[in-house]
């Protein structure tokens, strides 16, 4: 998702930055895509992977607009070379992304992201980087101020090379051209392995509620793996209690789709 704007109209995301061309606004992807332990592709680096509409007839892009929200639903298949016949391709995963932008308030804007992944063949798993960082999954690439500050549900957080504890949400705030603004990432309490740890960076990188880490997680052919997130784009004045309230509200929200 790019460009993503806060209520003041500022673009807060970065797309294809020179330091990491594969960072794409608010994106979600993994280094490891495996079948029965064998690597199929590296979707994180966009190597050996395409994302195409399913072959079956149907509407794979749907929108809905109400007085309170606008929702986009997109269904795509992951397409990779066939490990047996590389000249052919296979479709190991079907992804459904439901993105809802709620009507903006004076000080903040809320977007909810509901991701669902179903294996189309047996033995599929996805995982983060294979080093001790284990980054991968939902990864907003946002602009970062010189005075960037991280505050999680647990309080102030200092980024480290590897994943750190922060609780169910993480706020990234700073001063941009003399004005404060913030970007908060929230994880739904039904998320697998909740609460997640956080890969955080103060310069030139994405921010990532880490899942599943370096050890791949299996995808079912019968029941989608569901990952839900909320983004709050705000003017830098939201108190800890207000952010906590928006997360509590998110935890009670159900989808119509």
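^ Assign residues to that structure.
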């Amino acid at each position: 998702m790019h460009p993503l704007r806060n209520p003041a109209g500022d673009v807060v995301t970065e797309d294809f930055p020179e330091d990491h061309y594969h960072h794409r606004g608010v994106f979600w992807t993994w280094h490891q895509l495996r079948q029965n332990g064998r690597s199929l592709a590296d979707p994180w680096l966009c190597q050996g992977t395409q994302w195409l509409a399913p072959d079956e007839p149907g509407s794979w892009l749907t929108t809905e607009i109400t007085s309170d929200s606008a929702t986009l639903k997109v269904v795509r298949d992951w397409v990779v070379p066939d490990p047996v016949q590389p000249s052919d391709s296979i479709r190991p995963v079907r992804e459904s992304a439901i993105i809802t932008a709620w009507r903006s308030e004076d000080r903040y804007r809320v977007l909810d992201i509901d991701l669902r992944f179903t294996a189309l063949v047996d033995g599929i798993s996805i995982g983060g980087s294979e080093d001790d960082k284990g980054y991968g999954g939902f990864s907003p690439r946002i602009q970062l101020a010189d005075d960037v500050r991280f505050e999680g549900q647990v309080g102030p957080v200092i980024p480290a090379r590897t994943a750190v504890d922060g609780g169910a949400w993480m706020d990234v705030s700073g001063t941009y051209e003399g004005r404060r603004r913030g970007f908060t990432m929230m994880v739904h309490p039904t998320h697998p392995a909740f609460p997640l740890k956080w890969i955080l960076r103060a310069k030139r990188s994405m921010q990532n509620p880490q899942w599943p880490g370096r050890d791949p997680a299996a995808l079912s052919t019968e029941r989608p793996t569901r990952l839900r997130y909320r983004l709050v784009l705000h003017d830098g004045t939201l108190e800890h209690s207000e952010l906590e309230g928006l997360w509590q509200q998110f935890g009670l929200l159900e989808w119509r789709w």
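The chain has one domain: 26-251.
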